[in-house]
Amino acid sequence: MKHKKSFAALVICYAFFIGAVFFYYPKWNLNYSEAPISWDVSGYYFYLPASFIYKDVKYLFFKDRILHQYQPTKDFEQGYQLPNGNYVLKYSCGQAILFSPFFFLAHWYAKVNDTFPADGFSVPYQFMISMGCLLMAFLGMWVLRRILLRYFSDSSVAVSLILLVLGTNYFEYGTLGSALTHSNLFTLYALLILLTIRFYEKPTYWKAVGIGGLVGLAALVRPTEILSALIPLLWGLTPNFRSSLADKMEFFKTHLPKLALAVAACLLVGSVQLIYWKTVSGHWLVYSYGSDQGFDWLSPHFHKGIFGYRCGWLVYSPMLIFALVGFVSLFRQQRQFALAGLIFFILFSYVVFSWNIWWYGGTLGHRAMVQSYPVLAFPLTAFVGDLLKTKRWKYVFAPVALLFICLNLWWSHQAHKGRLFQTEQMNRAYFWAVLGKFKVPEETLKLLDTNEPLFRGTRKNVKRLVYEDFEKDTSAFSCDMPPIEGLKSACLNAEQQMTPGYSAPLTNGEARWVRVGAVFRCRNKEWDLWRNAQLVVAFTKGQDKVKDKFIRVYRFLNDGETEYLYFDTRAPRKAFDRVTVYVWNSGGALPLLVDQLKLETFDE
Q1: SS3 letters for 479-540?
Q2: Which one, 69, 95, 355, 505, has the greatest CB density within 10 A?
Q3: Is the pLDDT of residue 477 over 80?
Q4: CATH of the domain at 547
Q5: Tens digits of residue pLDDT in 554-584
Q6: Is 169 in contact with 371 (CB distance < 8 Å)?
Q7: What is the CB neighbour count within 10 angstroms for residue 303?
Q8: What distances in angstroms separate CA 1 from CA 6, 144, 152, 198, 517, one per listed residue?
Q9: Report field, pTM of the whole predicted structure over 0.70
Q10: Which H/E stretch holds residue 327?
Q11: Would 424 be classed as within a structural domain?
């Protein structure tokens, strides 16, 4: 068999994907927000049951029953109501089109089998959507291997395929997160590149239709993927820009009817969304993301999106550093598409990181970059090719690559069963505290709020500045829960959101550290992170805030529990003259008792 090494690498990748989907974390057996059709995926998917089961694309009367029974989201976040009373779905319908063959298979099975309801969300639908996305991922890897073997050695392709699939967050979004758009787009991009190559080798009308259809479908999945049109448009440009551009213009002029047909195919596919918008709203164009979401074109979030600990692209997929470096190798080895790939990647990254919700919701690494990986596979493979020509590459590169693969698989585990990865909450202190571990003390969760290292030493020169037991504080609010100690505890609830602030004078140099703590009791745990009560300390200079830190109480407090909670923070370097401690209920409605509120200073 030709290309045995890259075929073996492909089989290894397939095996890892099958192991993750079927044995490690079969999501179709899970409920609510952990099921495949949940959160954003349910928004992509709603078109299918609305159109083919409930015949209700305008009013979505079935949505309340589905949300109550399956809870794909807490509230209806899949769309919003228009002034005319109809609902418009938030996301475009491309992903639903890709889901549709597997949806129809699931619906047929549910109708002929009495075990599961044919309601669009029962287990057969969850299973088939997972299987469809897995098959799409398999197709994407297979196509990418075929493309790379045209230009690179079997060994280079084998290594780069392992690095890309197992060493980046494509593993997460090709397996457990495959129902999101990114893995399917990865496959569409791979198909587009292959068809582009074949079109330039032998232009035909059918290939032109295929290119236009793929661009249109990618844009129908995510509108910003209209950028995929740059791949066929720029393909073949070389650093000898003027000459290659003239050749390209002559090529387009010669094949203008085919180019027009590609544009027509793209528009025809895209018209599906326009027809939907016209049907539900009466308008051909609808901006369905709301006024609070859009693009920051003049201030893209490159640093946060690439290097930030919240979801930084290269922080969680450092393997792709080699792909970026590999553009140097690519320009040396394959000039005919190096420039096209670089231009596409720069523009693609600019659009991705200009989105004002730059972290794209819950994401392991920057998921919106995944669909660019078929393009980045070229410089990555070129980089590997250069390394394989050196005698000592395995002694330097191989251990680093293996470490990055292990790290990537470890992060994928922590995002699910391990639970050390905290979606949308990661920061520098917590990242380094959990890195490479499988179990950490519960107090490590404090770092998610303070983003400061925990104090581990012995406290010296301890001084108590504030102690409040609320026995004599007439401003403290009480409720129907029995006090924690004595006759009275402060109580926070929907009406009373904050305790009084208790402060003391403190200036720079008087202490290195501050500890704040209190005893808390709840009746029921508040699970909504953003409505989680906070224990807060604030340093001020006059009326100006210098620094404040807090921890979320319900990270450590469960139903009916009484716990003493505290945290430490360093005194700020900037001048301050007062320190204040208080508890804020953060918009929560559940009653929370507070007692024995303390503020102490100490040195190391």
Answers
A1: CCCCCCCCCCCEEECCCCCECCCEEEECCCCCCCEEEEEEEEEECCCCCCHHHCCEEEEEEE
A2: 95
A3: no
A4: 2.60.120.260
A5: 999 999 999 999 999 999 999 999 999 999 9
A6: no
A7: 10
A8: 11, 19, 17, 24, 68
A9: yes
A10: helix 321-333
A11: no
Of 113, 133, 98, 129, residue with least CA distance to 30: 129
Enclosing domain of residue 189:
4-416
What is the dihedral sign for C-alpha 207, 212, 213, 218?
positive
Query: Do 385 and 521 reside in the same domain of the chain?
Result: no
pLDDT tens digit string along 189-203? 999 999 999 999 999
- Which residue type sits at 157? V
What does the block give as tokens for 456?
Answer: 């581990």
pLDDT beyond 90 at 532: yes
How many residues in the chain?
A: 604
Token pair, residue 213, equals: 């259809």
Smallest CA-to-CA distance from 34 within 154, 177, 232, 229 is with: 177
pLDDT tops 80 at residue 475: no
Query: Is residue 398 located within the same domain as residue 539?
Result: no
- Per the prediction, the chain carries an average pLDDT of 96
CA-nearest of 124, 126, 121, 125 to 62 is: 121
CB 327 within 8 A of CB 346: no
Asked whether residue 402 falls in the same domain as residue 501, the answer is no
DSSP, res 16: H
Q: In the predicted model, is pLDDT for residue 361 greater than 90?
A: no
121 in the same domain as 58? yes
Would you tell me how many other CB atoms lie within 10 Å of the CB of residue 309?
A: 17
Given a contact cutoff of 8 angstroms between Cβ atoms, the answer to whether 523 and 561 are in contact is: no
Q: Is residue 33 very low, low, confident or very high in pLDDT (cuts 50, 70, 90)?
A: confident
Q: Which residue, chain included where needed, has tokens 């404090």?
A: 446
In a domain, 114, yes or no: yes
Query: Which residue type, as a one-letter code, is found at position 197?
Result: I
